[in-house]
Write a structure and sequence with these properties.
Chain lengths: ~200, ~200
DNA sequence: TCCTTAAAGCGACGAATGTTGCGTTAAGAT
DNA sequence: ATCTTAACGCAACATTCGTCGCTTTAAGGA
């Protein structure tokens, strides 16, 4: 029996206004700077508190862990405009893509590495990582559909499998095996994959 | 000027005998159990000390960090007899290999996942991870050389590239992208790679 | 058997990491 | 302009983590 005057209390962000927003902005900026300057290992609640000027307790209450901070930064900075380069051919598109992946993976300190490391600790970070990569693959699918439209690839080529084949060796080599990888090698995975795809290796 | 009576003090393990060995065995057993029962997140110095009956201080002195404990366990349990299955054909050899990788990656709690997570924290763990994978690739190279001997592959096929192509999508999907992977999918990466290799995709 | 001395045990300490209760501030509604 | 209250600031507390000085044990050599 709810009285008619009873205004809905509304769950969810009850007061997401001015101050809270400013605090969040300050904190996320601090997280980004700390990460860029000192790397993931130095990314601690206290360090972020000190740099942002926001109290420790607030961070513990709103984010609880460093991983949560990182996830929030990721969601906030998510670039909705990114698109793979359009070079006019599958092989060169994949080369451009692989070079971008390699560059991002090799930057120091590596944000990508930080996200992966975090994904091994908290489920939330893992979920963010999944979303991030899913989004990436989604956007990159056009590389394949364009190639199909140009007649370079069979019409039933699976974009996801093709992209996995091209990029996964880079991640594997750089993050799991932890060995260096030259740009030429990255290029080679692109060309090999493109050739295999054109031969129908990734047809459904 | 060393006096003739002056016995060499000998650097290195001065007294690796009975007690030390027993302590190490107890500790490593405890690490393995803790890891298997509660997973990597629960793997703490204190937990290992409690379970093994060895004092905290000893662990801090001899191993310093949990990652070092994990590395030591790995080195101690290293299986020098492992070899890839010989099924008589490249495709089926790769399928067997991928199934083994998938099974190991999917066990819960995952030792493989723990090692990877550790490799993002300590250089020592990273080095161990590199050694582990290098050793694995080394042993798996016979799969390729056998295929060459059978005439299935060009003589100048690069074993390492071929093996990367076959297995890296599994690691990528399971540990980076964190999505499930069916056995059929794992098999498919094996067959696709075998076909590409036979077409000369991994020639030097 | 006895001696020497690494290595393990032990407790106490300091620092870092989280937590809690309470007072204060300001967003948003009236 | 005033009121309500979510969110922040603050200080004190609890816990975990890693270190240090000292004592005790036992491995390995004489």
């Amino acid at each position: 029996m709810t009285s008619p005057v009873d205004a809905t209390p509304l769950p969810g962000p009850a007061r997401p206004g001015g101050r809270s927003a400013r605090v969040r902005a300050d904190v996320l900026r601090a997280v980004g700077e700390e990460l860029a300057e000192r790397g993931y290992d130095a990314l601690t609640i206290d360090a972020v508190a000190a740099r942002s000027g926001v109290h420790r307790t607030t961070l513990y209450r709103r984010w609880k862990t460093v991983d949560a901070l990182l996830v929030d930064l990721l969601e906030a900075n998510r670039d909705d405009t990114w698109a793979p380069a359009d070079t006019g051919a599958l092989t060169t598109d994949l080369i451009a893509l692989n070079r971008e992946v390699r560059t991002a993976a090799l930057e120091e300190p590596s944000v990508m590495s930080a996200v992966i490391a975090a994904s091994f600790r908290s489920p939330a970070a893992a979920a963010a990582q999944t979303r991030l990569l899913d989004d990436r693959y989604e956007r990159c699918a056009v590389v394949v559909t364009r190639a199909i439209a140009r007649g370079e690839l069979p019409a039933d080529t699976d974009p996801h499998r093709l992209l996995m084949a091209a990029t996964s060796p880079l991640y594997h080599q750089l993050f799991l095996r932890r060995q260096p990888m030259t740009e030429a090698e990255a290029d080679r995975w692109a060309t090999t994959t493109a050739a295999a795809a054109e031969a129908g290796a990734f047809q459904a």
